[in-house]
Design a protein that fits this description.
The protein is α/β, with parallel strands linked by helices. The protein folds into 2 domains: 119 residues, Rossmann fold; 180 residues, 2-Layer Sandwich (Dihydrodipicolinate Reductase, domain 2). It is built from 10 helices and 15 strands. It has a 9-stranded mixed β-sheet. A hairpin with a 2-residue loop joins strand 13 and strand 14. Helix 1 crosses helix 9 and helix 8 crosses helix 10. The chain is globular and about 60 Å long. The model has no long low-confidence stretch (mean pLDDT 94). GO terms for molecular function: nucleotide binding.
Length: 333
């Protein structure tokens, strides 16, 4: 059994990750919060035996095998490297860091320590995206030419906080949502982005000039071009993911979500039909792969290197939106 420590008493851990840890044979034994009272209340509410207030207490705990980091983004670097040096495996929320060099340093520290580092890109665990990847690999749409991702949603009040008012924590829609698009596109297309161009928007939710909407295009190594629209501000939009090829199209709806829902239609000369989807909890898929990776059986569903790629793409999108120029994507791996 893998024994977990939570670095951050977060909503995502409470809603998704603690349950996924338990469902896949692990246990959460400790939680770290800088606020002692919050930490105690969180531990009690979620059936966690111990709460601590310092990084040293959690990474120095011999009873912990792995940590899940879900603090604000500017804290990930120090926490992940400390955990790796202490011999703990690390599952870290995206983006891995705010700067590419920091994300690369996290990957390097994990490699040197011989521990597993994974990025919590949940969407590549969705049955819909796995089915699309398999269909493309099997030649069902011929040569992929273009893709579209709609991931404009409404950020609920209980999640608004730092995402809308703390640029120093990596707030804004690009590092929160666009990085997910980048990872999902890389996974589905089995291809890497090389260039980004984008326009951002401040639609009234983001404070201090932080973007709460963005549209843009990524160009991939194969020549595929992919359009994306991300936002915190759209209360009534649906999400979707499309890939169009020379011999067919894959059209997915309501798939850019934490929940195991949505549909995928394959449309080609023979007509259209729904792809069969074996829907399953996305986070349980991630934690199952992570536990197997610790045991030496395969790789995590999204590695540290995958997290570097999505961060590099997000940073290129942000730079393009700020400058109006097309920006090369260079992960430095």
């Amino acid at each position: 059994m893998t024994r977990w420590g939570l670095i951050g008493a977060s909503t995502i851990a409470r809603e998704w990750v603690i349950g996924a840890i338990r469902a896949t044979g692990g246990e959460t034994v400790s939680v770290m919060s800088s606020n002692a009272e919050r930490g105690r209340a969180y531990a009690e509410a979620n059936g966690i035996a111990k709460s601590v207030t310092s990084l040293e207490e959690i990474v120095g705990d011999a009873g912990i095998d792995a940590v899940y980091i879900s603090t604000t983004n500017e804290l990930h670097l120090e926490q992940a490297i400390a955990a790796a040096k202490a011999g703990k495996h690390v599952l870290c929320e995206k983006p891995l860091a705010l700067m590419l060099d920091d994300a690369l340093a996290m990957v390097k520290a994990a490699r040197e320590a011989g521990v597993v580092l994974a990025t919590n890109h949940h969407l590549r665990n969705a049955a819909s995206h796995r089915a699309m990847r398999q269909a493309i690999a099997a030649g069902k749409i011929g040569k992929p030419l273009a893709a579209r991702v709609f991931h404009a949603v409404y950020l609920p009040p209980h999640l608004q906080g730092w995402r809308l008012d703390k640029p120093q924590a990596g707030g804004g829609v690009i590092l929160d949502i666009t990085v997910h698009d980048a990872d999902t596109l890389r996974f589905v297309l089995n291809d890497d982005p090389v260039e980004a161009i984008a326009f951002s928007q401040s639609g009234g939710m983001g404070m201090r000039g932080l973007e709460d909407g963005v549209m843009g295009v990524l160009r991939f190594k194969s020549g595929v071009i992919a359009q994306f629209h991300d936002a915190f501000t759209t209360k009534f939009a649906e999400t979707g993911f499309e890939v169009h090829g020379t011999e067919g199209s894959l059209i997915a709806r309501n798939v850019m979500t934490q929940r195991p829902v949505g549909s995928v239609v394959l449309r080609n000369a023979e007509g259209e039909h729904d792809l069969p989807l074996g829907q399953h909890n996305l986070y349980e898929e991630a934690l199952s792969a992570f536990h197997n990776a610790i045991a030496g059986k395969g790789q995590p569903s999204a590695s540290g290197e995958d997290g570097v790629w999505s961060l590099a793409t997000g940073l290129a999108v942000a730079k393009s939106a700020a400058t109006g120029a097309a920006i090369e994507i260079e992960p430095g791996l």
